[in-house]
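hey can u run this one w/ uridine-5'-diphosphate bound, need the structure tokens asap thx
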Amino acid sequence: MKKQILVVGGCGYIGTHMVKALLDAGYEVLTLDNLSTGHREFLPGGQFVFGDIRDSALLDKVFTGHTINAVMHFAALIEVRESVKLPLKYYQNNVSATINLLDAMARHNVDKFIFSSSAAVYGEPEYIPLDENHPCRPTNPYGRTKLMIEEVLSDTARTGKIKYTALRYFNAAGADNSGTIGENHTPESHLIPLVLQVALGKRDNITIFGSDHDTPDGTCIRDYVHVNDLAQAHLLALKALENGITKAAYNLGTSRGYSVLDVIKTARKITTNTIPARQAEKRQGDPAVLVASSEKAKKELGWHPQYENLDAIIESAWKWHQKQMIPNDATTG
Ligand code: UDP
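ok here u go:
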């Protein structure tokens, strides 16, 4: 019998790619999503339940009505700046709701959990590349919500009630090569989709946040990791949990950094559009460089990211963006 995985937030950007990867790997998938930011029409398949993980009665129904082997949790708010303005919204959505989900899992003896964590748990880097031993001192409520849940998981795992893996994503980017799923946030704040929206004429220009960072070209350097590589890491983490191996947290990045200018130049080349750029002040709290060491995931999970250069990542995103009529929202992040 096929194993069934509950994907919470399966209608979002990373969630849809995960659902596709699980279906391709032969799992049954049940997606639970409140569609606050996700898109039902992009769900690649499997069963769907509309609802919120704060609804305990609904969770009881889901866990009673299905034999769930493991839970993958993608349903979180992700806007750093919004988390500073509306911290309670973030603690409510990302922390309370997740605890509610874990509680329901415990009631129904579902013990495998894969958590979407973030490089934001580290805060300002003390050294690069960041490995998992780097101190965790998040500098904003968003990062703190992710770290809090990692701590909740660690404490709960000690009781034997749960086996978990927390995957700390660096900058998720790109889209599945089918061109049927991809990044679609409203409002959009991420660099690559914004740059491609300029190329599509949806925006006049791209704003470069800060040109005097301590980097070779003065713009911030990030580690862009393809969303399908993230999904593959989840499959490997799931296999490890199924085999009883739990190692807590893993960084997921490519170990290569690209600057904001690198992204713009690569997008100009791929789209053959001039993509006008304008300079602006630094974004508060933006570290100059965030690059992962993913040696642990490579060694222990056997993870081998396929998309190691920016061209391939942006090409896949471009394919998706050209197919979309993304609304021209006014917010530039
Ligand atoms: N960035 C930018 N202009 C934008 C959006 C982002 O210069 O309109 C920069 C941002 O300061 C950061 C990098 O691009 O250095 C990646 O930002 P994004 O919001 O995509 O991800 P983050 O690294 O903040 O999670």
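The pocket of uridine-5'-diphosphate is lined by residues 171, 189-191, 194, 206-209, 220, 222, 260, 283, 286, 332-333 (CB under 6 Å). anyway lmk if its weird
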